[in-house]
Specification:
Elements: H1 3-6, E1 10-15, E2 18-27, E3 36-39, E4 52-55
Antiparallel strand pairs: 1-2, 1-4, 2-3
Length: 96
């Protein structure tokens, strides 16, 4: 568990196949085998065998594309004249 990977993540658990929002990660101790959350008092503590999962804050995912690029080369092997009509691409974030 990396501290920067979990800090400020929202913590959920499944109760009868329904996601329950438990709270927000506020700290990860040095041993990185646990985490400390700011728990909503109105939410029950999950059972020992409940599935726990995390969600990143939406603000961390809106910075745009960083560190990725693509290079494309178009080749016309024909001896006839050709005209390029359009080029397009589709990019999306798969983590949201």
């Amino acid at each position: 568990m990396e501290e920067l990977e979990l800090l400020f993540d929202t913590v959920y658990y499944l109760q009868n196949s329904k996601p329950i929002k438990l709270g927000t990660v506020v700290s990860v101790p040095d041993e990185k085998t646990s985490f400390i959350i700011n728990r909503f008092l109105s939410v029950a503590v999950p059972a020992i065998d409940d599935y726990i999962f995390f969600s990143k804050p939406a603000e961390t995912e809106v910075s745009g594309i960083i560190g990725y690029e693509a290079t494309t080369t178009l080749v016309n092997d024909s001896t006839d004249r050709a005209e390029l009509y359009a080029i397009s691409s589709e990019v999306f974030q798969s983590s949201i």
